[in-house]
Amino acid sequence: MAADAYRLGLTGMLVMAGSSAWAQSAPESASTIIAVQSFASPTLETPVGFGGRWGDVGVGVFGQTFDSNEDASAGVAIGLGDPDSYFGAELGLGFSSLTNDNSKDSFGESGGFSFKLHRNLPGYSAVSVGVNGFGVWGGAEDANDPSYYAAYSKMLPVGRFASILTIGAGTEVFNDPGEDGANVFGSAALYLTPQVALIGEYTGRFANVAVSVAPYSWLPMAVTVGAVNVTERYDADTELAVSVGFGFNFT
Fold first, then answer.
1. 212 backbone dihedrals φ, ψ, rounded to 5°
2. pTM of the model
3. Which of 47, 6, 60 is nearest to 245 (CA)?
4. Parallel, antiparallel, or unpaired: how do β-strands 56-66 and 207-213 relate?
5. 147: alpha, beta or left, given left = phi > 0 and alpha = psi -120 to 50?
6. Are 63 and 3 in contact (CB under 8 A)?
7. pLDDT tens sequence for the chain (251 residues)
8. Cα-to-chain-centroid distance, residue 43
9. Residue 160: CB partners within 8 Å, gap ≥ 6?
10. Does residue 9 contact residue 93 with C-beta atoms inside 8 Å?
């Protein structure tokens, strides 16, 4: 199938989520940090508690191999509200297939929406609730029902490094195929620098590992390369996944 609908719009806003987490660690210089520096993504596929705010815009592309084929999704998301003062929100629109190599749909013929509500908490942490894959059209209608989730993230020091840890629970794509109810997911990102992160995550279905790099401090872009399903669950091979996200603030 094409790249899962819940990834749509994720990659770009993860750049802003990383910015939000690092801004909490240095609140007195938060605006300067976000304006001039880019941050590695804290996850490859799983949601996080941190998120965007009014004026944030994220765009991204996610590609993955499927046996002998490849496919990709693309999305755009906007930030609303203020997660420090009350709540922040993200509304995303995505296209779940950019080619028809692994799907009957071509670009624009399949996609859906996502929505997330989040709040920054004391202690460099944040919580979010959201839904991915609603209002779908095209071939995405044959995929999973909307996936609901809740996530909590916290930034912690690890020696001279930093980490962002996330624990959450969600339905549908966060659970085994055909299973009802919620399942646990989680991730851990070890930041060697603000621009380089080593990622391990469990999506509720697959265990993934990845490396995320923000190659230019002046450009809010993160490139994340990972291996999906490293334990080869469901008799499926480990696949390559790549995401490229850009996050901007226009306020």
1. -115, 135
2. 0.87
3. 60
4. unpaired
5. beta
6. yes
7. 333 434 444 555 566 666 676 666 554 433 333 333 688 999 999 999 999 899 998 888 888 887 666 667 888 889 999 999 999 999 998 887 666 655 565 666 778 899 999 999 999 999 999 999 898 887 666 666 899 999 999 999 999 899 999 999 999 999 998 899 999 999 999 999 999 999 999 999 999 999 999 999 888 899 999 999 999 999 999 999 999 988 888 88
8. 6
9. none
10. yes
| Token digits of residue 141 | 């209608």
Amino acid type, 146: P
Q: Cα–Cα distance between 5 and 94 in angstroms, integer?
A: 7
CA distance 164 to 149: 18
- Would you call 60 helix, strand, or coil by DSSP? strand
* Domains parsed from the chain with CATH numbers: 5-249 (2.40.160.40)
- Quote the tokens at residue 60: 């991204």
Tokens 């509500």 found at: 117
Token pair 């080593």 is found at 198
